[in-house]
Amino acid sequence: MMQRGTISVHLVEEALVVARQRGFDIDAVLTLAGIAPGLLADATARVPASQYAALWIHLARAMNCEFFGMDRHPMRPGSFTLMARSAHGAETVGQALRRALRFISLILDDFQPRLVREGERASVVLTETGEPLRAFTYCTFWLILHGLTCWLAGRRIPVTAAEFRCAEPPYTEDYRTLFTHDLRFGRSRTRLEFDAAVLDLPVKRSEAELKSFLRRAPANILVKYRSNDSLTVQVRRRLRRLDATEWPDFDRLAGELHMSPSTLRRRLDGEGQNYQAIKDSLRRDLAIRCLSEGTNSVADIAERLGFADPSSFHRAFKKWTGMLPGEFRRGSAGAETAVPRDDGRAA
Hints:
InterPro entries: AraC-type_N, Homeodomain-like_sf, HTH_AraC, Tscrpt_reg_AraC-type_HTH. GO terms for molecular function: DNA-binding transcription factor activity; transcription cis-regulatory region binding. One of its GO terms (cellular component) is cytosol. It is a single chain. This protein folds into 2 domains: about 1-220, no CATH class; about 230-330, Orthogonal Bundle (Arc Repressor Mutant, subunit A). About 50% of the residues lie in helices and about 10% in strands. It has helices at about 10-20, 25-30, 50-65, 80-90, 95-105, 135-155, 175-180, 205-215, 230-240, 250-255, 260-270, 275-295, 300-305, 310-320, 325-330, and strands spanning about 1-5, 5-10, 45-50, 110-120, 120-125, 160-165, 185, 190-195, 225. A 5-stranded mixed β-sheet has the order 4-5-8-6-7, with helices on one face. Strands 1-9 form a two-stranded antiparallel ribbon. The longest helix has 19 residues, at about 135-155. The relative contact order is 0.11.
């Protein structure tokens, strides 16, 4: 199941950096993707993941590169398809990942990726010789690789840590949502860490499934892959049936799920989640829906979502979206906002 959402205009701007430098008609490309050029003037704005995917496709065609022109050697259109087909023929996720990395090594020049397995942890490490690249460059590579690997495994692969050689950029919220809250900047190397047991999982995707996956790319790698039977999904569904003011505390939730608090914490951690993050995600989704579709006051919405007072809600919403509730409501008037649902469809 895919958790659909929105992408910050910060990432839209990052995607356009090289195209701007090369003199492309940015307004024309944005318009083709369904993104109003004027939206970029609002640093707090967000666009549907589907529009960001369309932007990726149109930039790839215009620049003859599926990697936003960020490497000395272009990743020609069709490269992702060839990489996916090469990985699809593997027997295990580890073998598939090695094939994908070998393919990328032949395409890109600015870094060389390799798979490292150390005990219970595995990492994809990038070897670089020049100055650190942008965080967006690293994260775009992770997005491509991680999205493909999750699909091949048929499950969400939790990222336990992500390290970057570069300094922390001003905006990281979407990276934390897509990968992990444990982002470490200014490190000696760039790497993505995950559970090594994933490497032994079998690849059981048919040719028909591969064709469907490729038809939907890159939209399907811009959102988190979640299996229907994951504990995270179970917890989200349980909470959705209740008012936010009735959500159980952690120990009570563990009892309702017939497990100890330590087991619940360990299993959620294994999926790259924690209870507070799940509650925050649901509150954000509910807040966006209430502000977009309803006429209740901000104070009423804050109370419904279980906040002690409106000011607490204002601070939380600003952290989630970069906007105050009133600003968001005014900006969403007359516009359609994608809100994640647990059935994988946009509300």
